[in-house]
Design goal:
The chain is an alpha+beta fold. Strands 3-4-5-6-7-8-9-10 form an eight-stranded antiparallel β-barrel. A hairpin with an 8-residue loop joins strand 5 (about 90-95) and strand 6. It has one helix at about 1-35; strands at about 40-45, 50-60, 70-75, 80-85, 90-95, 105-115, 120-125, 130-150, 150-165, 175-180. It is globular, with a radius of gyration of 21 Å.
Amino acid sequence: MFKLGLLAVLVLAIGIGGNLKAQDITQHTKELVASLDKTKYKKKDKGVVQLEFFFEVKNEAALKSDQSQYTGAYEADGYLLTLTVLADGSVKGSGYDSQKDGGKPVNFELKNAKLNGALITGTKVFDNGREQAFEAVFVNRTTRSGTNPNTVNDQKTEFGLGFIQTSNAPDSNWTNRVFLERR
């Protein structure tokens, strides 16, 4: 009887652990998607002249029923990532990143990359041997711009991959929201 009770507790613990991990990944994906959002609104009154500017970026996780649909090339100015997503969720990829200071782009390969829902994680291994954790999310990105939130002149939605790039240098502290559009 003790063995049966112990087995039941063990099975229950494994089931709860798997469920908590799935909730953690879902929550983490939502947090990363939200960190890619941006809203900017400025209004200046200069006596007779009034200037208004509105710009908004909203992202939504892009879940695909067939993971292979994420396979492709994703690009933005100074960035390229070519991905192949396999049926088991493993990912092969390579590309290049631009440098914040405008330097020459640096090539990398993705190592131990895995897709879970819309979240991709792995390690970038650069040509010089340096390694950097990589975490990105597939998103549908909607940009809106106009004079104010109620007067939008332009709106478009694109599919791609978003991530936050941060500096690794001890004397530099910056972050950059990066969106790579699928080509």
